[in-house]
Amino acid sequence: MYIFEGAATALITPFDKKNKINFDSFKKIIDHQLANKISALVFLGTTGEASTLSEKEKLEVAEFAVSYVKHKVPVILGAGGNNTYEVIKRSKKFAKLGADALLQVSPYYNKATQNGLVEHYSLIANKSKVPQILYNVPSRTGVNLMPETVSTLSKNPNIIGIKEAGGNISQLNKLMSQKPKDFAVYSGDDENIFTTLALGGQGVISVVSNILPKETQSVCQLYFDGKIQEARNIQFELLPIIEMLFCEVNPIPVKSAMNLLGFNAGVPRLPLTKFSEENLKKLKNKLNLC
Prior knowledge:
Layout: E1 6-10, H1 23-35, E2 40-43, H2 55-69, E3 75-78, H3 84-97, E4 101-105, H4 114-127, E5 132-136, H5 138-141, H6 147-153, E6 159-164, H7 169-178, E7 184-187, H8 193-198, E8 203-206, H9 213-224, H10 228-245, H11 252-260, H12 277-286
Parallel strand pairs: 1-2, 1-8, 2-3, 3-4, 4-5, 5-6, 6-7, 7-8
Helix pairs in contact: 2-3, 3-4, 4-6, 6-7, 9-10, 10-12, 11-12
């Protein structure tokens, strides 16, 4: 049984003017997601700027997420990192807090071999009681989790799926052809939601759904309901705003979009910076806020 099918939002982490986590804004953001029938919520991922949160802050976000959402939808917490044993410690803490699943990004900077990735993920999965979702994003990590490696890892009963953000359709095809029937594949690229579903995927872990949760969920639900043309049309309608949300490094654009929509997201932490004025004007046009 899948943890979720449909659209999960990879939530931003809102900051206040002092660059501290803004939990009041977080509540409004979550309420908006739930009101728009999102399938699941992902905290502490790439979009959530986990790489610039302290360990204490990560635990605060994790505890807040579980307690505030109250399992109305699955809560998935990003626990990954490039230190296997620290990831295990973090994963155990998140499990105790009540996470429904953990998202485990491939180790970055280390440039692990495929065998190293198998050992890394297997040890984490064997030490944790919470279901694990692999996260392949080679543009960020410098290492590609190959389909054969995913196939090997999928044999571990505690590794239940993957967020595939490689942007490689040929690799996605190969992954789909090798995975077990009950192993979930979620698109990690918003422009490939429809494609992933058409190849047999279960949905998306999305950036654009921060600002358009209803529409992103609709791509998935319409597809599941057999309304293929309608699902494809919404995917096409989303493409211009998706392109805008990735014209600078994520989550710079999406945090600006959230601010424009009144969610007080703040600005990203260094080394990320504010959205450029030129692109901000273009974003306003896309959001019809000029």
